[in-house]
């Protein structure tokens, strides 16, 4: 077993559809948190779910922050690289079809997924980012995708934790490098709603959306 696989405590639940969801929890969650959501989003998909390696007052996260919405950018970069390294090891170890791998991140998990995809464009090409963002001032990433990623972003219009301008900045960053982004703003806050479930499942079912990988 590669040492890189031990970077994250994680759960792997095998599936029977060929698809795998990479589940990335929010602050205070763990590797078990999003398993029920993953089963609803894509019944029968394999589920790969790591726990964030940072502890904030005992709450697991995927990167350090100084305060709510004030990220330690050096740590974001380091942890995004670490997650990518772990993910490559997990893909090899569990025999995951990387062409049928979709990241599903909620809040802090969406933010680390976005950081990883923007820094390392070829590790995950498909993502559902629930209540994700970057800071408005975030510079466009240098690395362009060789193959465009497909991203569904779902934001809450009244989310007190994720300002809409920051969510829009993230969708712009993906679009600027040629990724295909669908960004829907829902009449809700930070919590997920049945509308998130409906949009995510129908987006995932549009498998024909990728014709060339
Ligand atoms: C973050 O820290 O990534 C975001 O502010 C969301 C969260 O509180 O997890």
Task: Give a structural overview.
The protein is α/β, with parallel strands linked by helices and 213 residues long. The chain has five helices and eleven strands. The protein has one domain: Alpha/Beta hydrolase fold, catalytic domain (Rossmann fold). The protein has helices spanning 35-41, 73-94, 108-119, 164-176, 194-205, and strands at 10-13, 20-24, 46-50, 54-56, 59-61, 65-67, 70-71, 101-106, 126-130, 150-156, 180-186. The strands form three sheets. It has a seven-stranded mixed sheet with strand order 1-3-2-8-9-10-11, sandwiched between helices. A two-stranded antiparallel sheet has the order 4-5. β4 (54-56) and β5 (59-61) form a beta hairpin. It is globular and about 40 Å long. The mean pLDDT is 93.
- Describe the main β-sheet briefly: 7 strands, mixed
The number of helical elements comes to: 5
Distance between the termini: 28 Å
Kindly provide the radius of gyration, computed on alpha-carbon positions and rounded to a whole number of angstroms. Answer: 16 Å
Architecture in CATH? 3-Layer(aba) Sandwich
SSE succession:
EEHEEEEEHEHEEHEH
Provide the number of structural domains.
1
Helix content bin: 25-40%
Instruction: Return the structural class.
Output: alpha/beta
The set of bound ligands, ions and cofactors reads:
D-malate
- Please provide the count of β strands: 11
- Could you state the CATH homologous superfamily? Alpha/Beta hydrolase fold, catalytic domain
CATH topology: Rossmann fold
Strand content: 15-25%
Shape: globular
